[in-house]
Structure formats: structure tokens, C-alpha cells
Amino acid sequence: MSGRAIRPDDAQRDQPGWTPAVPEPGPLSEVPVPAVPVPGETALPVPPETSPLGSMAILRTASFLVLYLNSAAVFLGVMAQAIARGWLAFELTGSNAALGGILLAFGVALLLATPWGGVAADRLPKRLVLQLSVLLLAVSSAGIGLAVVLDVIAYWMLLVASVLQAVGFALFGPARMAFLAELVPRGSMPQAVSLLLVNAEVNRVVGPALAGVVIGAVTWGIEAIFLVSAVLAFVGILLTAGLPAGLPGEPSGRSPLGELADGVRYVHRHRELNALVWCGIGVTMLGMPYLAFMPTIASDLFGLGSAGYGVLSATSAVGGVAAGLFLGRRGAWVRRRRVFVGAGAVFGLAVCSLAVAPTAYVAVVVLLAVGAAMLAFQTSNQSQLLDLTDPEYQGRVQGLVMLSFGAFGIAALPLGLLADLVGLRWTLGGMGAGVVAVVALYAVAGRRRSAAARR
Q1: pTM for the whole structure
Q2: How does it sit in the membrane (predicted)?
């Protein structure tokens, strides 16, 4: 968009001596955009395309700031209790398979629920969907915390809590990302996505570090983490009152199953969307289970306790924050596809390096690269998908993207069994090699698509 009105005398502008009768309007990026919701409207009147905004300018958009703070409260609690849940499962069972079982329950439930979360984000007010999702997260956290306090905790309860959390995330993820299309200008989508992902990574630093210290320092640390996580979730629910309702889609007259099928067909018709979704699923499924093995990486490979587990878990998040701050700059997204392919390859190679790290100090350096590469991969994937997807399909496409986290949970159990059988280092090496193979396949197919388009 040029930002210039078309007038009858435009054809004369190349004639000698021509001057405009009135000053020409400036570019669209100079037109002020309201930073607060207009009373009576359900969404901010953000133009569909402007020149990219900086991170601070995006944060000054009132509704985006509310969404950002909501995500901060939710993710701080979730990341802290993930450490507590993993450590609790390890204490109750002492096996990699049990850790994988927690993620399997999460993954299967997420895989089944996420597509419906995408349909809900497209057809219901997005604020309502966020509120219901965070309520489920609060209930699951409070339940485990009370069970530990009453000394009735059992492994199966962790499985049930994982299922509830999966359903909550299946609603939360698609609605949160689809909301961006209403809250920020289209040209600023990569920066907005990066801010939300950095938000999660910052809390993946703070949450595990605090959780590891609390678990190691006090005898009642585990129950405290779960109960505080529930309180943070309720804070997140209160914050959603400051969001616009979120524009629901027009009624289609079709059943939810029919709308889900429409979303799948929509992605399948668009070859680049299809490739991005499947590459994201493959990389996440094969690479992200390293997080499930962090308790045994810390204890078995390097002889560290719960505090060391928290530090190692937080280290990869530090790398993610650094990458996110760099990628949040206005000019960092000139070649998003190259960032996507390069970050995916580096992530796979870094997981391979973790498999052969001789000491905890080397593992810290490697985990910095793991976190940085994974955040760059996720940010470039999400921003391309949001940019390529039509507004009425945003929720369903984001629901399909969330399937990757369900696949990650499903892959964790067989990978855990494999780690018990052949060793954790061999398993990590195979995971990293698989990630590199998936990214290479996407890159080769992408070149073929580009060559076919030029012919």
C-alpha cells in the first residue's frame, strides 16, 4: 500500500512544471491509530496493513498489553508447576517411562481437543474461550496442590491433571494467537508473535528457577508451587476483563465437525501452509521431548539435584529470550523462510550436541543454543502462518499448529522407553538427527515449489 489517494491529476505528475494543488497525504504509517478500545466496539480499529511497529509501540496497544499480561500470569504458573509435576512424577515412580506417561496423557488429550479449540476460537468470542481455558488450568493446579497437602497424591492424579491442562491449552493456544489478527496491524505480526513467545520464554526462565529453588529449600515446596499456580491462573482470568470480546465468526450453518473439516481442507489446498504446519509438527514432535527428559539429564547424566534441574531447564529459556529480543527488531524478518529453515537445523544439531555433552557446563552452553533456535523456529513458523491465513480460518489453522504439542507428548512415552532401553544419550542423538531430516525435507520441497511457481 502506498498510502496515497488516487486523484485525476496523477497522470500529470511527470509533466514539466507540475506541482500538486494540495499537499499529498503522508503514508499510512503516519496516520495515528487509537491505542485504546473504542467504547461500544468489540475490537480495536487496527488497519490491516501498516509499516512494522517496534516492540514498545506494540506494547502500547492497550488490548495487546492486556493479552501479554494475561499470558505472563498463566505461563509463569504453568512453567513453575511443570517442574514440580516432573519432579513429583520422578519421586513417585523413578522411571523415564513414567515421565513420558505424563506427557503422553497430555499429548493424547491435546491431540483430540486442539482442533475443537480452533473451531471455538473461530466461532465464539475469543475472550470467553480464553476465560474457560484458564479456568481449567486453575482447577487442575489447585487439585494437585490440595492432594499433596492432604498426602493423598498418586501418579494417576498427575495423569488426570495433565488431561485437564491439555484441554485448557487446546482452548487457550488457538484463541490467543488468533486474537493477534484483531489487536495488531498485519505488518507487525512477526514482532507481536515474538513478544508473546519471549513472554513465555521469560517465564520459562523465572518459573523453573523459582520452582527448583523452592522444591530444594523447603519440604512443602511442591504443594506451594501448585497452589500459587492456581492463584496466578485466577489472576489471568481477571485480566481478560480488559480485553475486547473478540469478533466471533459469521454462523456458517455447519456442524463443528464440518467446520473442522473445512479448516483441514483449507490448509491442504494451500501448499505453503500445509508444508509449514507439517514441518512444525515434525520438529516439535521429535525435538521438544528433550524437555521431558530434563530431570534425568540433570540427575543421571550430570549428578545434579532439583536446583540443578531448574537451572538447566531455565538455561534453554535464557537462549530463547535472547533470540526473541533480537528477532523482535523491526528489520529482523526480511527473510523469514531462511530464518525458519536455519533455526530448525540449528535446533536439531544442538539436541545432537546435548547427547554428547561431557559436563554440565558444556550442557549449559548447548542448551542456550537449543532455546534460541527453538524460539526462532516457532516465531518464524507462527508469523508466516498468521500472515498467510485468511481471518475466518485463523483459529482452526492455529488449532492444527497446536497439534504439534500433542504429538510431542505422544512421542515422549516411546522415546522414554527407548531411553530406558538403549540409553538417554543415544536417544537424544536420534531425536536431533530426526529434526535435521524433517527441516531438510521441508527445504528441498520448498525449492521445488518455488521452481514450479517460476515455470
Answers
A1: 0.66
A2: Multi-pass membrane protein
